Amino acid sequence: MDVALAPQAVRVPERSVRHDLRAVKIVLHRELIWFWRDRMRLVANLLQPLLWLLVMGTGLSTLMTSGPGPAGEVDLKTFIFPGVCATSVMFTAMFSAGSIVWDREFGFLREMLVAPVSRTAIVVGKCLGGSVVATVQSVLILALAGLVGVPYDPVLLAELLGLMFLTAFSLTAFGLLLAARITSVHSFFGIMQVGIMPLMFLSGALYPLNGLPAWLSVLTRFNPLTYAVDPLRHAVFSHLDVSPELRRVFDPGVTWNGWLVPVWLEVVLIVLIGVVLMTGAIVQFRRGD
Amino acid sequence: MPSGESAVEVDGLVKRFGDVEAVRGIEFAVRPGEIFGFLGPNGAGKSTTINMLCTLLRPTAGTARVAGFDVVAERDQVRRNIGLVFQDPTLDGYLSGEQNLRFHAELYGVPRAAARERMRQVLEMVGLWDRRGDLAQTYSGGMKRRLEIARGLLHSPRVLFLDEPTVGLDPQTRSSIWDYIRRLRDAEQITIFLTTHYMDEAEYCDRIAIMDAGRIVALDTPEALKAGVGKDRVQIHTDDDGAAITALKERFDVEAVVAEGAVTFAVAAGEEFVPRLFAELGVPIRSVSVSRPSLDDVFMSFTGKTIRDAEASGADWMRLVARGRR
């Protein structure tokens, strides 16, 4: 085969914000390509929420409705739906963050690290990539809303998606911070498994946070996921037709020493935590420079 | 890079990992348009040096300029002007060949309009245009390496670094990779800096630097290096190798060993030595061959060991070095 005699040389421009934005975009784009290619993962990630909602939710709700009390009118499946949403976002986001460990183990990270772009652009791209992937996955979970008595209200769905995007952002940042120091995919997923379960169980995803023993109550307040689950649940219950008493039982909000934390503050907290964790991840990746 | 300036210029470069001095003060210059080879056993400090030149490792001491830019102070300028093909693969197997290149073009900020045409050029150059849509993980070892070379060239670097470009490939693929490398130099007028521990490949370079235990022990064209050895390699087949070796030692004061099934030794002006050998050895000789020194002999004459021996003894040390780099 013939080699072009006068190859056309291309010019690599000086580093600029625009160049960094292109880098962010292509790193994000790659996450989406991976997500799309790996449809097994998509299915597997959907299976878990289905299991929680339809199997565990149904199983436990028979227990609840058979007893007396206010539980009768609110389906347990409806109650745990926001929690299941948050949990599924957590899994997807952490998986996405894990891709950077994969990149390191299989060499692709080097290709990124020797490019004339800032490490910040790469970490931000990864972070947004994880968030977008988790949000896309969330759309599929939201499609189940009707099955568990959550109305398909466009405002509600938009609210939930927005909240899940922010949650995914923070959790991806958390995953990246973990991943910065870990060199093997195996240990990353090992550590992730150990970390995810307590986060989930201490977040109010599966039970209301009022009336807990003091030790458990304190632990849940220190769990960032708590502040992701609560706004989701608040949004769902705002669109349900339930009595104030039931609402107080199932959607009590999060209190700090008796003070009810407003939803906006919870959202600010989530974003703040995300930004702090992402900054931490950026610092970690820059240190290797 | 103003004309006449070196493509790579290294002065007093040192890299220490804790107590281990992987690179112990080296200096050399690579001319623009040259194919420059770093030859040495594994663990000699070749990869450490290349990593410093590529801005992946910070030198402990000394300076290095690549394409006219300082590797520490002007890191981004250096990165913009170099292409890299690493020893270990750095492709994303879940992306197609073309997607791997597009990722690279975006990351390097290559203008989109130009990138498309350039991608086609480099893919055609390495013969992968027809396979561009296939996932990189379906490529053979040689194809992957070629894709990496294409990717390294995509942003029109002035210097292309190839770290052991043919390691782990079969001989046929190795020679085709070399075909591409030489063609490339002619087509792109770029400087190629590579490391290898294959002697036969070093022959393809315009100049080679022999590196051993963190130092450059020789630097010249392959021809000049071989001429500098001054001795030819003589191999004889005899009926009694043991007696022949003893006789060589006693009558000619020549040290000989059995290598490749023949009694092997080095003497100056080998062809003139052969008649004396027949007359005076006293052991029947069945056949004789005289060959000019190879790069193996060059390596031996500078380091006192063959490259294989050097790799064996350097293994522990190499492990220490490897721990410090990633």
Automatic annotation (TrEMBL), chain A:
Belongs to the ABC-2 integral membrane protein family. Signal peptide: none annotated. This is Transport permease protein. It is a multi-pass membrane protein. Pfam families: ABC2_membrane. Its main location: membrane. PROSITE patterns: ABC_TM2 (PS51012). Keywords: Antibiotic resistance, Cell membrane, Membrane, Transmembrane, Transmembrane helix, Transport. Residues 40-288 form the ABC transmembrane type-2 domain. GO terms for biological process: response to antibiotic.
Automatic annotation (TrEMBL), chain B:
It is found in: Cell membrane. It is a peripheral membrane protein. GO terms for biological process: daunorubicin transport; doxorubicin transport; response to antibiotic. Keywords: Antibiotic resistance, ATP-binding, Cell membrane, Membrane, Nucleotide-binding, Translocase, Transport. Gene3D superfamilies: P-loop containing nucleotide triphosphate hydrolases. SMART domains: AAA. It comes from the Bacteria. It holds the Pfam family ABC_tran. Its main location: membrane. SUPFAM superfamilies: P-loop containing nucleoside triphosphate hydrolases. InterPro entries: AAA+_ATPase, ABC_transporter-like_ATP-bd, ABC_transporter-like_CS, DrrA, DrrA1/2-like_C, P-loop_NTPase. One of its GO terms (cellular component) is plasma membrane. Residues 8-238 form the ABC transporter domain. One of its GO terms (molecular function) is ATP hydrolysis activity. Belongs to the ABC transporter superfamily. Drug exporter-1 (DrugE1) (TC 3.A.1.105) family. NCBIfam families: drrA. This is Daunorubicin resistance protein DrrA family ABC transporter ATP-binding protein. It comes from Actinomadura rubrobrunea. The lineage of its organism: Bacteria, Bacillati, Actinomycetota, Actinomycetes, Streptosporangiales.
